[in-house]
Amino acid sequence: MAKTGKPRGTLRQKLGHAAIMAFFCGMWLVPYRLRNRWVGACLRGVLGRLLGYRKRVMDNLDLIYPDMPQDQKLKIADQVLDNAGRTFTENMFPAQFHAQNPEIKLHGAGLEAVLKAHKDGRPIMFYSGHFGNHEAFRAALFKHGIKVGGMVRRMANPYFDVQYKRMLDINGRGGPVFEADRYGTLAMLKSLKTGAALVLLLDLAVGHGITVHFMGRRVYCSVTAANFALKAKALFVPYFSMRNRDGDSFSVEIGAPIEHSDAETMTREATKSLEERVHADPGNWFWIHRRWKYRPPSE
């Protein structure tokens, strides 16, 4: 499980963390939905430009949709940045997030299979990408008694890294969280084999793995999620945690489970399901990520 002990970092990192936490302590005084909308607007506006996020989103949209009209790309970029700002703020206040979202819609072709697997004590290996807010998915599943855990990458600032991992517990409503390293990987597989419900996201840039086509471009993709499902005999199922058009509410779809075959075949099928969802609702996907950073040599 990811460690959340006393962090050690530079004075600059400590001061940076203190500044962030002071900001959010002040934001606590602002009504929940107004706070989220304000931070979303900041990232959609000047802050997004200063951080370079808007340019990164537009560069990715130009890469994948070269023929799309510019005004449509700008609209998608606005949705992406607004969602990113709201998500970051929502996740800083997990108790409020749950209290303000008591009726998250949970549906989909795979929902009954997930509930049955949980009832039978069968492991569940969820997979997804960075859509909407991932915490809406965990909140919706918790209402059915399912605590979902997963794996996280260590953040550059060790002080905020500890804070972030504590938040992932969502006041005891989250499952175990593991560090993205060799020991964390082994611990995660062990936990899955005992019947846990865990998730891995497949849309992060990686410099190794199998070559897949994602949004018309060849990239590397890890087969870890599929391998875990095979080794633990776990249900391998997608979910899509989407922000609704009102910007405040969510809808969580559990897709149809992928049948067990081999890790490469399952990973390609999983990647295709993510690709279809991005095309269907591009403003809900996190285009800020450098998903196409690493390209196979032949491209």
Automatic annotation (TrEMBL):
InterPro entries named in the record: LipA_acyltrans
Location relative to the cell: Cell inner membrane
A Pfam short name: Lip_A_acyltrans
Gene source species: Planktomarina temperata RCA23
GO cellular component: plasma membrane
Keyword check for Metal-binding: no
Primary location group: membrane
Keywords tagged on the record: Acyltransferase, Cell inner membrane, Cell membrane, Membrane, Transferase, Transmembrane, Transmembrane helix
UniProt-recorded name of the protein: Lipid A biosynthesis lauroyl acyltransferase
GO MF entry, a single one: acyltransferase activity
Transmembrane segments: 15-34
Keyword Glycoprotein belongs to the record: no
